[in-house]
Specification:
Blueprint lengths: L6 E12 L6 E12 L3 E5 L6 H8 L7 E6 L2 E2 L5 H10 L1 E4 L11 H6 L9 H14 L15 H13 L5 E5 L7 H16 L3 E5 L11 E6 L2 E7 L21
The chain binds adenosine-5'-triphosphate (ATP) and magnesium ion.
The site of adenosine-5'-triphosphate (ATP) has 12 residues, from strand 2 and helix 1.
Length: 251
């Protein structure tokens, strides 16, 4: 049965300015975006058009200079910083453009980190992290440190870390940028699976071939939306499943 998914993310006239005077840059300019639960959005556009800035704002890592950002019906300025940290830890998985792995932790420890906030015991956390790494063919690198991995391997670790606790929202900044086509395929199939379970994905890519995975493709230009095309109607988006990371029996 088709459902009418609820609005999850709403940006209204969001502007992000960096610097002042001669150094002033508008990374986002009067940006309007409404995201329904279960959308898989791909964001494209030239370097510097504001894609990463947009993900940072949606992921509560940065705040707009002006405009409104409402997340799950709540205006974000009204969310306390403690609550924001909690939402980031449990509900949002971010795959950063530059990976952001912690250099003095092993691969396994990096991937298990988001589970710290989910109430799992340590052995359970490491087991889940190990299972997730296995999905990305990285089980034999568990005890390596990030610096001992190739760029593509680091990227896969960063993706494993972002999805290990099954977040409802995944923000991915060029998650396949450093990958060969086989690894890119593995990553896209993982994201497809996560999406089919009713989760929401916003992904930046420069690769037009990947847009076949999306339900909506947005092209940005100079901090604004240039084109916005939905390839799947709202009624036909995957339905959300119950929130899996708080399953009682797993704690
Ligand atoms: N911390 C910052 N301080 C000053 N300017 C910034 C900062 N972050 C981003 N900008 C500027 O905002 C604009 C948008 O940057 P952003 O990183 O969002 O672009 P992008 O679309 O992600 O580019 P790319 O495809 O190269 O990753 C750029 O002109 C950039 O110089
Ligand atoms: Mg960027």
């Amino acid at each position: 049965m088709p459902t009418n998914p609820a609005t999850l993310i709403k940006l209204k006239s969001v502007t992000k300015r960096f610097g002042y005077g001669d150094a002033e840059t508008y990374a986002l300019h009067n940006f309007d975006l409404t995201v329904k639960r279960g959308e898989f959005i791909m964001i494209m556009g030239p370097s510097g058009c504001g894609k990463t800035t947009l993900l940072n704002i949606i992921g509560l890592l940065d705040t707009p200079t002006s405009g409104k950002y409402t997340l799950n019906g709540k205006p974000t300025p009204k969310i306390s910083s403690k609550k924001k940290a909690n939402i980031r830890a449990k509900k949002i998985g971010i795959i950063f453009q530059n990976f952001n792995l912690i250099s003095n932790l092993t691969v396994l420890e990096n991937v298990s980190l988001p589970l710290l906030y989910s109430g799992f015991k340590k052995t359970r956390r490491l087991k889940k992290a190990s299972e997730t790494l296995d999905r990305f063919h990285l089980k034999n690198r568990e005890y390596f440190f990030p610096a001992q991995l190739s760029g593509g391997q680091q990227q896969r670790v960063a993706i494993a870390r972002a999805i290990v606790n099954s977040p409802e929202i995944i923000l991915a900044d060029e998650p396949t940028g450093n990958l060969d086509s086989r690894s890119a395929h593995i990553v896209m199939e993982e994201l497809k699976q996560i999406h089919s379970e009713g989760n929401t994905i916003i992904m930046v890519t420069h690769n037009p071939e990947l847009t076949t995975y999306a339900t909506r493709v947005i092209n940005m230009l100079d901090g604004e939306i240039d084109t916005d095309i939905k390839t799947v109607s709202d009624q036909n988006l995957p339905q959300p499943v119950s929130i899996r990371f708080v399953k009682k029996e797993e704690q």
